[in-house]
Amino acid sequence: MKGEASPAVELIKVSKSFDAVQAVRELSLTIRQGELLTLLGPSGCGKTTLLNMLAGFEVPSAGSIVIGGRDVTAVPPYRRNTGMVFQNYALFPHMNVFDNVAFGLRMRKMAKFEMARAVGHALEMVKLEGLASRRIRQLSGGQQQRVALARAIVIEPKVLLLDEPLSALDRNLRGAMQVELRELHERTGLTTLFVTHDQEEALGLSDRIVVMSRGEIQQVATPLELYRLPANGFVASFIGEINRLPPARCRTEGNDVVFEIAGGIVLRARKRNQPTIGAGQETHLFVRPEHLTLVEGDRPAPNRVSCRVTAHLYQGAYTLTRVDAGPLGNLQLRVLGGEVIAAAPIGSQIKISIDLDKAVILAG
Ligand SMILES: Nc1ncnc2c1ncn2[C@@H]1O[C@H](COP(=O)(O)OP(=O)(O)OP(=O)(O)O)[C@@H](O)[C@H]1O
Ligand SMILES: [Mg+2]
Predict the structure, then answer these.
(1) What does the alpha-carbon distance between residue 270 and residue 257 come to, in Å, rounded to a whole number?
(2) Residue 343's closest CA among 317, 309, 318, 313?
(3) Which residues fall inside 5 Å of ion ligand 2, going by CB?
(4) What are the 10-residue block averages of pLDDT along the chain, 364 residues in total?
(5) First and final CA of the chain: distance in angstroms?
(6) Rounded to an integer, what distance in angstroms lies between the CA atom of residue 275 and that of residue 278?
(7) Contacts of 52 (CB under 8 A, 6+ apart)
(8) Ligand 1 atom 11: the closest Cα is on which residue?
(9) Residue located nearest, by CA, to atom 16 of ligand 1
(10) Which residues contact 260 (CB under 8 A, 6 or more apart)?
(11) Pocket test for ligand 1, best of 45, 84, 216 (most atoms within 8 A of CB)
(12) pLDDT at 277
């Protein structure tokens, strides 16, 4: 049902204060029908508070919430038809899997026969068939996580709210569950709001990502747009690895933009559409580690800079190599494989090339 005109959820200037803390500030956001939208931001930026307001567990201090065209700002949780997976799962440990999943259906007084069918279907969706009579404490972390998911989807919610559902899992299981969550989303077509503070998880899973900081939205965009065209310094630094160069003055020279950085460094980029940046203006350059490359010998290369190797972090498929680039500060390169560790030992002088054509350039 993707692309339907009427939005699944609308938040209109929603704020939430707890005494002195303003957890969410005049936040407006539209969630499209059937999309998997991710809220991404550092700890304490207001993600759980926002989810709690959508589910009805917290009442906004101001603003309104519309779900499926109906204003639910004053509607209690059990009348909202939202399914939520809490940050700590919040399963009932003394009940078995079936009763945990059936909980919301009992509250809705569903007939026994129908309930058994619905729970069976939900358990199938999360690949837990055959475990209905198991106690919660006899399950692994990953299985508990699936029970929490089944409990949320069994009520056929208008919106599925997932609060860091994978954060308790180890790295391997987490990767597998990310793929499964995405598949579950394709199968059910449920409008989903997913919360994480893990940017890789957000980039891998989402149709769109909302980056939050201190109760406010910084940017809403697809994963690709967010990585390539972050709207500001916060988003640039929060999404993926990035090097922030010292402030530069820029001017144009033919088809080039020239950046002058204190310490006598001059870098060049091809002119592209940068309407926000005028000549003489202070600019900030952000460069991804994959856009810095090693230069062998005296080979000419754009934006060649001398530097000293300070560390290698071997990652398997690639190595993150840290260098001291003098006036440009400390930079990090991403070099394929691990050969660089022996070829450019710590302390050695190397030359790197900075590809500014792919850099993020933001005005002062
Ligand atoms: N019930 C509460 N009473 C007082 N302050 C609260 C309450 N709930 C949240 N806060 C505050 O509101 C802010 C946002 O909290 P919230 O739990 O929404 O953050 P979060 O983005 O979910 O963080 P995390 O990634 O750590 O889960 C924090 O400063 C937090 O301390
Ligand atoms: Mg939280």
Answers:
(1) 6
(2) 309
(3) 48
(4) 74 96 97 97 94 95 96 92 85 91 88 92 88 90 88 91 85 83 90 93 95 97 94 92 93 89 91 68 92 91 96 96 97 96 96 93 83
(5) 42
(6) 7
(7) 58
(8) 23
(9) 46
(10) 248, 249, 250, 251, 266
(11) 45
(12) 67
The pick from 19, 24, 27, 48 for probing ligand 1's pocket by mutation, whose C-beta has the most ligand atoms within 8 angstroms, reads 48
Q: Say what the pTM is.
A: 0.88
Alpha-carbon span 169 to 171, nearest angstrom: 7
Q: Domain ranges for the chain, please list them.
A: 9-238, 245-363
Domain 245-363: top CATH class = mainly beta
Joined tokens for residue 43:
């700890």
Closest CA to 307 of 331, 295, 327, 324: 324
pLDDT at 240: 86
Two tokens, residue 101: 């999943």
Residue type, 341: I
14 Rama sector, left if φ>0, alpha if ψ -120 to 50, beta otherwise: beta
pLDDT at residue 87, rounded to an integer: 79
Per the structure block, which two tokens stand in for 161? 């709210």
Q: Kindly give the distance from the C-alpha atom of residue 48 to the centroid of ligand 2, in angstroms, as a whole number.
A: 4
Phi, psi of 146 (to 5 degrees): -70, -35
Amino acid identity of residue 154, one-letter, is V
Rounded Cα distance, 220 and 203, in Å: 12
CATH class of the domain whose range is 9-238 = alpha beta
Model pLDDT, residue 284:
92
Strand blocks (E) in 61-147: 62-67, 70-71, 82-85
In order of 18, 261, 267, 305, 310, the CA distances from 264 in angstroms are 50, 6, 10, 12, 22
Helices (H), 41-96: 47-55
Residue 104 neighbours by CB distance under 10 Å: 21
Q: Within 6 Å (CB) of ligand 1, which residues are found?
A: 18, 21, 23, 41, 43-49, 197
